[in-house]
Prior knowledge:
elongated, 4-stranded mixed sheet, 141 residues, alpha+beta
Amino acid sequence: MTDIIIYHNPACGTSRNTLGLIRNSGQEPTIIEYLKTPPERDTLIQLIRDCGLSVREILRQKGTPYEELHLGDPTWTDEQLIDFMLEHPILINRPIVVTPRGTRLCRPSEQVLEILPRPQQGAFRKEDGQAIIDEHGQRIE
């Protein structure tokens, strides 16, 4: 059983890069494809709380029904926005990663490095070719 969970969308490059960084630390996470298996209300609320973000900060705009649902309207309450995310899981920003060291919305994907329990094991390049981890497992700044 792994101690890392990633709420993952395999169609998202940032999510794939984050998963790659987790695997580059020598661990295989529990992968929850949240579009197929959305979190329950209590779990979503806890994830948002543990990330230290507001509901609006977790709400994804790009490639979602955000505009058509008029979710930028400030009169929507957090509870209503959560209802929308549960009805349309694509509105949940990704990837969210949970480890024993914390919970993060990993945008950019390098955010995951702050909460991984193990160091990187070798070089890593993002899908766009950007090197972010050197051959010694050290972050390239």
